[in-house]
Amino acid sequence: MIFGTGMAATTGQLAAGYGGRALVVTDPNLAGSPGLDSVRTSLHEAGVDVRVFSEAVVDVPESTIAEAVASAAEHRPDAVVAVGGGSTIDLAKVTALLASHPGPLSTYYPVESVPGPVLPLIAVPTTAGTGSEVTPVSVITDAKTRMKVGIASRHLIPRHALCDPLLTVSAPRTVTAHSGMDALAHAVESFMAISRPPTASSVLARPQVGKNLLSDTLALTAAGGISANLARAVDDGDDLDARSAMLYGSLLAGIAFGNAGVTAAHALQFAVGAATGTSHGLGTGLLLPYVMEFNRPARRTEMATLAGAMECADPVTAVHELGLRVGLPASLAEIGVEAGDVRGLAEASIGIRRLIDNNPVPLDVDALEQILRAAWHGEPNRLSTARG
Ligand SMILES: [Fe+2]
Which terminal Cβ of the chain has fewer Cβ within 10 Å, N or C? Predict the structure, then answer.
């Protein structure tokens, strides 16, 4: 990991360490931006032969993956450089995967099924964020089911996370708010995740093993930093101190959930996002306080520790209020979910076992429906009232 203002200038030397050719993966909005220019200049000065694929889009559809892989096949890069948000980095991950191992991509849907190393990946995030620059996960959209699928393998962890806060100042207000709430969800969900007694076989069977001492340490620092700086970064995108703190927080949260895993808020977002067309961070941020409240009986110690890190009386209330403060919708009803849709969303989420099984309280469809019902009303304390 390389972190700091101006560090995009190190891209060229890092890439040159793998050979003379690089594929840059980015999106159309960033294609002419100063941030991307600083990366390209650095690659040029290091003598790297660059091809730019600038067609990354949100949700990573398979048609875009096919185009990026074709671009890689023509250019034969020694490294892939991803410059963008989570979708762009996730696209670069599967491009590096399919440039190194035969398809179809669905071969790799089972956890930890990538057979070996992929093309070296240098991830340069422009949002704070998904933390994808340090995680073993790439979330793509399956062409047949149109559902999001997470491909998880230690081989998908980028070789380098190159975090330059200057590249995040151009992120629009809404993107900053949604991706920042997503980063907070990563920190809080990994801190409150299931705890599994480690065994030699279980720690190798999956990259995300539940909460542990290292992930807890990082998650706590991340939760404190993000909750103190998100509103500042949203209010003034040029506030470089707030931008730096957010990028650092999302980096730490990324390492935390890359090892611990996230839980019900992320599982439910897959279904809510597909049904409403809303962004990943809007959904995880909106759902987070409800999942926290549902999990409270099993995580009272963690809740007290979080209150200290976030300097608040109650973390559920603080997360809910921060979401509203940065402009998240107040309820699922507000984003167009009908009361009658809630059961179906719960049923669609229960199958995402990688995340459902990582929740500290066992979940069934009724439990997920209860969480969604409270979020539909926009009232986290409906869950505590129901509990008595
Ligand atoms: Fe997320």
Answer: C
Crossing angle for the helix pair 342-349 and 264-276, nearest 10 degrees? 120
> CA-CA distance, 107 to 59, in Å (whole number)?
19
Report the alpha-carbon distance of residue 232 to residue 368 in Å, rounded: 33
Q: How far is the CA of 104 from the centre of ligand 1 (A)?
A: 25
Of 136, 167, 198, the residue at which a domain comes to its end is 167
How far is Cα 333 from Cα 377, in angstroms, rounded to an integer?
A: 7
CA–CA gap between residue 208 and residue 136 (Å, rounded): 9
Spatial separation of the C-alpha atoms in residues 219 and 167, rounded to whole Å: 23
How many whole angstroms from 141 Cα to the centroid of ligand 1? 15
Domain that holds residue 7: 2-167
In the sheet that holds 49-53, the strands lie side by side as 2-3, 160-163, 121-125, 79-84, 21-25, 49-53
347-350 contact pairs (CB < 8 A, 24+): 348/147, 348/270, 348/271, 348/274, 348/275, 349/264, 349/267, 349/268, 349/270, 349/271
Taking all residues of the chain, what is their mean pLDDT, rounded to a whole number? Answer: 96
Q: Taking 70 as the threshold, does the pLDDT of residue 388 lie above it?
A: no
Dist. CA 86 → ligand 1 center (Å) = 9
Shared domain check, 176 and 163: no
Using the mean position of ligand 1's atoms as its centre, give its distance from the Cα of residue 15 in Å: 27
* pLDDT tens digits, one per residue of 240-256: 999 999 999 999 999 99
Closest residue by Cα to residue 342 from 365, 373, 364: 373
Verify that 138 and 117 share a domain, yes or no. Answer: yes
CA neighbor of 357 nearest in space, from 249, 234, 261: 261
Using an 8 Å Cβ cutoff, are 87 and 60 in contact?
A: yes
- CA of 2 relative to ligand 1 center, distance in Å: 22
Domain boundary among 141, 167, 193: 167
Ligand 1 centre distance from Cα of residue 76 (Å): 31
